[in-house]
Design a protein that fits this description.
Elements lengths: L3 H6 L14 H20 L2 H42 L12
């Protein structure tokens, strides 16, 4: 079996979600967002359109940065849970550790 750390370092692991459209609720929300944005663009003037685009870009930045923070937090939590499992494995292995 190859080392997962080696494969990760070589860029052979895909860490991005495969597709977002597997979730029907997410697909519906994305479609509504795109349709609403298109309607708004036709309803507002040029100056408001610039402000809307700035707002949209700021929201995208917030989501991207939050996603990164959530990933890091979740990863750290998972590692801590794994450490706990390995540090307190008494009673989990029948017959104890073999030495």
């Amino acid at each position: 079996m190859n080392s997962i750390l080696r494969e990760f370092a070589l860029g052979n692991l895909n860490t991005a979600p495969q597709t977002v459209n597997d979730n029907p609720k997410l697909a519906k929300a994305m479609k509504l967002s795109a349709e609403t944005e298109t309607k708004l663009k036709f309803m507002i003037g040029e100056e408001a359109l610039v402000i809307l685009e700035q707002f949209t870009n700021a929201q995208l930045d917030i989501v991207a940065l939050s996603t990164i923070d959530n990933f890091i937090h979740g990863y750290k939590l998972g590692v801590l849970m794994t450490l706990e499992v390995f540090s307190d494995s008494k009673g989990l292995i029948v017959g104890g550790w073999s030495e």
